[in-house]
Amino acid sequence: MGYIWRKINVWFAKETTRWTAVAPSIWTPKASLDFEDKSEKVIDESSIGVIEDSFDWHVVKEYAEGNFECNVYANSIGYLLLNLFGAVSTTSSSGKYTHAFTVAETNAHQSLTIGLADDTQDRQFALAMLDSLDVNASVWDFVKATASFRSKKSTTATLNPSYSTDIALLGKHVKVYIADDLAWLSTATAISAISSTLTISKNLEDVDVLWSTVPEDFCNTQFWVEWTLELKWDNETYKTIYQNWVKKAMRIEIADSVNWVSLTFDLASVIMTEFAKTQDNDALVKQSLTFKALYSMSDSSMISAKLINTHSSY
User: Fold this and answer.
1) Integer Cα distance of 185 and 190 in angstroms
2) Which of 25, 96, 105, 289 has the fewest CB neighbours in a 10 Å radius?
3) Which ranges of the chain would DSSP assign to H, the alpha helix?
4) Does residue 297 sit in helix, strand or coil?
């Protein structure tokens, strides 16, 4: 009997001991998923007196890899942010929790266990590490996240999917701010962005060792951030910033004021690396801006995130 992909359930959990799978912490809705076990093989093409090209093969590496796409939900997104940034501190007030995520200056950020449950098997993937995360916002749609992971190969598990109420964030909740520095973002005026894509990459490196086909670890290396915005063309303000290489600070605030949940990213220092305008004769002219984040020595930060929700800890 077959089944449709919609039947697959996904969960995350913070690992207590690196490499060691743990029980589910939160089940999260998915939009798409292609996370699977992988293996690499070598073919023995040594000659043995015949014209056939090979006679044996061996497995030399086993791991799991893939992408996970979801709408951004106020509670479940915290597990991705923990894995992405590596450090979090949490405070509470009036039944809400504020989680401040900062970049841990290590090459072994907090690992997760990812689990998959479907009609044929239940699997768990220990030592799951983000290679990159995209957060996309556009009009008339959900805010979406696309996560690229690598992990140890899967092991079997016994899972019982159980979803809790979570709050989805939408394009209508998004505001984007640009200011001269981080301190001025709180008093800046929101700009009229049409779409926003924030990309954070951790450039994972597999730690392969001679004695095992399974990587010993997946370490984050160079941490970089890029942000692309689309706006209606009104004047040459942003073109001037691009031409003069003026440093700015930026914020994307995704806030549902009805449910009192929010997700905010602050970029302490950015430069605009690309600028372009559309040239459609029959449509409004739009401008596309691409920014690269820089580490600010005065703020001791490149990027940070603040998540306010009903989840007590990560």
Assistant:
1) 10
2) 105
3) 77-85, 237-244
4) coil
Picking from 84, 63, 76, 85, the residue whose alpha carbon sits closest to that of residue 130 is 84
**The pair of three-digit structure tokens given for residue 29, joined into one six-digit string:** 């809705």
User: Is the CB of residue 310 less than 8 Å from the CB of residue 75?
Assistant: yes
Among candidate residues 289, 290, 314, 292, the one with its CA nearest the CA of residue 302: 292
3-state secondary structure of 96: strand
Other CB atoms within a 10 A radius of the CB of residue 125 amount to 26
Instruction: Tell me the two tokens of residue 296.
Output: 């600010």
Radius of gyration of the chain (CA): 22
List, in sequence order, every residue forming a beta bridge with 33; answer none if it has no partner. 68
C-alpha–C-alpha distance, residues 75 and 165, integer Å: 9
CA dihedral 251, 80, 36, 150 (to 10 degrees): 80
Amino acid at 61: K
Q: Please report, for the chain, the start and end positions of each structural domain, with discontinuous segments joined by +.
A: 5-38+64-309
Question: Given pLDDT bands bounded at 50, 70 and 90, which one contains residue 4?
Answer: confident
Q: Which helix (H) or strand (E) holds 271?
A: strand 261-277
Nearest alpha carbon to residue 104 among 303, 253, 264: 303
The answer to whether 11 touches 159, Cβ cutoff 8 Å, is yes
Q: Determine contact, residues 149/133, Cβ cutoff 8 Å.
A: no
Question: Which of the pair, 120 or 189, is modelled with greater confidence?
Answer: 189
Non-local CB neighbours of 282 within 8 Å, separated by 6+ positions: none
**Collapsed DSSP state (helix, strand, coil) of residue 204:** coil
For residues 313 and 92, give the distance between their C-alpha atoms in angstroms, rounded to a whole number: 10
